[in-house]
Amino acid sequence: MPKILIINTGGTISMTSSARGYVPDGEAFRAQLSGMELLKARTMPQWELMETEPLLDSSNMTVSDWNRIGGLVADNYDAYDGFVILHGTDTMAYTASSLSFMLQGLDKPVILTGSQIPLAEIRSDGRGNLIDSLLIAAEGKVKEVCIFFGGKLLRGNRATKYSADELIAFVSPNYPPLAETGITVEYNESALLKRQPGPFSLQVLDEIPIGVIKVFPGIQFSLFDQIMTEKLRGIVIETFGAGNIPNGGSELLPIVRRAMEHGTVMTVCSQCTQGTVSLGTYEASSALAEAGAVSGRDLTTEAAVAKLYYLFSKGCSAEEVKRLMETPICGEEKER
Ligand code: ASP
Fold it and tell me: In terms of Cα–Cα distance, which of 152, 87, 155 is closest to 116?
């Protein structure tokens, strides 16, 4: 009988309402779980529950929380067949992306899930999400970090939160779902990540100074002069379309060049959720490539941020980070 560890970190699934809106409520959540007869069914795997302290609205998650969650998986790795991490939806894609890099050599399922409606409420989507996540984790077919939500199992580092109120809250615009649940669970076998080489280990992340800039018409790049100092190690720029910035970057270029000389790695992502950055396709993006920015290709912003944290935490030089940002490590971007 497979044994699954549920790690509750908070989020709507374990919230109840207070005078100031929804807040995590561990006691109410534990009461809900023990009242769920389906979780005791013979066809369910064995499971145990751990909680991180304090339970969080995921908008409060930090790098040290990712390290805590990764540490719980690593400490309990041999004792369980899979892991289900209950997490708020707001930053679930960031945590899933980070864990996908941190849990090296993973050969067990790690599934993040949660809900849009608290488990304590009648129409909660949390019951279905939790039960399906436990069954998929017990089946053990996937050996990667995933998000299960609204009937779809998505690669964690390809997913992004797409809806603030629909029950299918996540999409994976540049990679097909790993599985979909209907009457049965249909796996997309060819999309599953092959087991990563090497023994399982945890790469802890450091609090690397990273920035994200979203360009918009009329953006005054000179304002960024102050923050693009040698203190900034990595920057993700969310550009238009295939990597384009206003005025071909004439205003941004001197600032970018100076930042690069300081060793800052600039990664170019797109504001479009679907498609690939292609620097140099338009004149409006050529200057970024000439200045030494790297193409984030089809990375989500979440995965680009997580990958920068990971590579700098591993001690890679700026040159190595630039090379590896364009090299798939665990299925986060397409092969060249
Ligand atoms: N604010 C909540 C969170 O991310 C939203 C949710 O879980 O759906 O923790």
Answer: 87
* Closest by CA position to 166, among listed 187, 149, 142: 149
Give Dmax (Cα) for the chain.
Answer: 65
Q: How many helices (H) and strands (E) does the chain have?
A: 8, 18
The answer to whether the peptide bond before residue 54 is cis (omega within 30 degrees of 0) is yes
Q: Please report the domains of the chain, with CATH numbers, ordered by start residue.
A: 3-202 (3.40.50.1170), 210-325 (3.40.50.40)
pLDDT digits (tens, 9 = 90+) for 244-292: 988 776 778 888 888 888 899 999 999 999 999 999 888 888 888 888 8
Q: Taking CB atoms and a 6 Å cutoff, what residues make up the pocket around ligand 1?
A: 10-12, 57-59, 88-90, 114, 116
Q: Is the pTM of this model over 0.90?
A: yes
Q: Residue 207 corresponds to which tokens in the numbers above?
A: 């609090």
**What is the C-alpha to C-alpha distance for residues 150 and 232, in angstroms, rounded to an integer?**
38
* 128 CA from centroid of ligand 1 (Å): 17
